[in-house]
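User: My collaborator and I are trying to settle a disagreement about how two of our proteins should look. Neither of us wants to argue from intuition anymore, so we agreed to look at predicted structures for both before our next call. Could you fold the first one, then the second, and keep them clearly separated?

Assistant: That sounds like a sensible way to settle it. I'll keep them separate. The first protein:
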Amino acid sequence: MSKRIVPILLAILCCSCMTTSSVDRKISEWRGHTADELIAVFGSPTDDIKLGSGGRVITYRQRRCVINFTVNTNGVITASNWKGSKRKCDIISGPAPH
């Protein structure tokens, strides 16, 4: 019984890691690009919150996915993160910047 469970658990773990890394890779490619470039590709954000430091957080939400981009005072994306459904986030994380 346990000999059957281990391969199944390993397969699930591997698949979830591959999916996660594709979303992380797509959104991290936006680091160093401007918020204007991001908005030109994704459209208007769901939220655009000004930070006390002068930067901002741009958020895109869709069913079961939230993607955040942190933008510095120069309008450049410095960080990104996501939460929610890996499949939904992979779909809406959009094309890589040029």
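The second protein, kept apart from the first:
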Amino acid sequence: MEIAVVGTQTFTLGFQLAGVTRILNPNNEEEMQKDLRQLLNDKEVGIVVIDASDLQKMPDRLRIQLSDSISPTSPVLELASTLIILRSGARNLNSPI
């Protein structure tokens, strides 16, 4: 399972320096919607990290789809202004964050 980070270059830089390779820097909200939809359909992505303020800008339907993709046993973590979505396919993540 891969970790994907979506956001501005400033937001994603720390994750990139930490070794995350699936980095998406959309130029506008439309591109961000497209990227998030693609990640929802990608079975290799187990964790999606997005700034909570960016997520709030997304259409309700997309936010609901992201929320529904979360396994009941996997939490949504909000750290400062960062939202981490653990997708239902990420059942092999046993260590706490």
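Some points you might bring to the call about the second protein. Helices lie at 9-17, 29-41, 52-56, 60-68. The longest strand covers residues 45-51.
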